[in-house]
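Students often ask why we bother encoding 3D structure as a string. The short answer is that it lets us treat folding as translation between two languages. Here is a chain of 221 residues written in the first language.
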Amino acid sequence: MFKSHVTYGFIACVLAALGNAVAIKGAQGGVNFITGERPSRQEFSTFRSSGPAFDLYILALQRFQQQNQSSPLSYFQVAGVHGLPYHSWDGVSGQNLAGYCTHASILFPTWHRPYLALFEQILWNNAQQIATAYPTALREEYQQAANTLRLPYWDWSINPTMPAEVSQPMITVNGPFGSRNIVNPLYNYTFNPLPSSSDFPPSAVSFTLGYIQETLKSAVV
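And here it is in the second language, the structure alphabet:
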């Protein structure tokens, strides 16, 4: 009798934890629920000329990076699932001083798919909110683009040079309030607040990140 109570109690705790867990469903829009067909991800050289979709991608990524770092759905914490800082995420701890990433493992593909699905899901949700803020004359066009928005990819076998948009500190997009030149979220991420020594301890390979204010992407290899 005692054992059964313990078992039911354990199951209840697990179910309660799952009920509060982040649900990773991926981007939900644009799916044909009869055939299963869904929008394709575009190669970046094509995607950069997509107009409303590109505008929304940049603005959604900007909003993602502006989320409070204490939120599990902030850019800081979601990016951290792939590497530093090695904190628990959504109530689950990663490997000691190795985080969650399964690089150099046969498990990598099945790990990386839901990780990208989460990243894309957050961008997609942000894009829906941003699209509703456009003027009436443009709103439907941007809402349609938001509905089918997916993460682009860079095919380095087509062009080994990193896209120019990644190496520009500023970028021009057409937002809800017209054309604006904004800080480029593809170029860098600014810590807010600055990470602590526990986020990037000296024992970690990238311990120097604890002493800088931003991460930076570079087109120079």
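Translate back mentally: Confidence is low (pLDDT under 50) at residues 1-18. Keep this in mind for the problem set.
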